[in-house]
Design brief:
mainly alpha; 5 helices; globular; transmembrane; UPF0114_bac
Length: about 170
């Protein structure tokens, strides 16, 4: 009975496969919005103000960062929790493929969230004259929460890797 239960639990990891594949549709939706934004920009490129152009470019960079985050989560998550990817020799292979464990994936996600939040905060500050001060304050507080959280996760990860993070758990 125990063996059957363990085999079923181990096999249940495949439930994640369609979820990771579903992220590719989110990536496709993001690409559609990216090119839609470019299409809206193109006819007005010569008449748009520099500050407005910078806001559009920041939105495009934001979408690119989110896209990269999706790819990292999709591929690394699949490799870490479902099955190793079998990529033929001679085919292009991402340098980080197979090297990112769940801890480093967590750190990459945290760093990406901080970068995305930074870009969003920069967009907010470029439009600060139209945003009430209390909202600006909350944007900064939320961003700093992301920064402190990512920093804290990095410190804990480093302590754990150096063996100083032992909290009495058996090996």
């Amino acid at each position: 009975m125990e063996r059957l239960l363990e085999n079923m639990m181990y096999s249940a990891r495949w439930i994640l496969a369609p979820i990771y594949f579903g992220l590719s549709f989110a990536l496709l939706a993001l690409a559609v919005k990216f090119f839609q934004e470019l299409a809206h920009l193109a006819p007005h490129l010569l008449e748009i103000a520099e500050a407005d152009l910078i806001l559009v470019v920041l939105s495009l960079v934001d979408m690119a960062l989110v896209g990269g985050l999706l790819v990292m989560v999709m591929i690394s998550g699949y490799e870490n929790f479902v099955s190793q990817l079998d990529i033929e020799d001679g085919r292009e292979k991402l340098s980080w493929l197979g090297k990112m464990d769940s801890g480093s994936l967590k750190m990459k996600v945290a760093a990406s969230i901080v970068a995305i939040s930074s870009i969003h905060l920069l967009k907010v500050f470029m439009n600060a004259q139209n945003i009430p001060n209390d909202k600006l304050m909350w944007y900064v507080i939320i961003h700093m929460t992301f920064v402190v959280s990512a920093f804290g996760m990095g410190v804990l990860d480093k302590l754990a890797k150096n063996g100083k993070g032992d909290v009495g758990l058996p090996d």
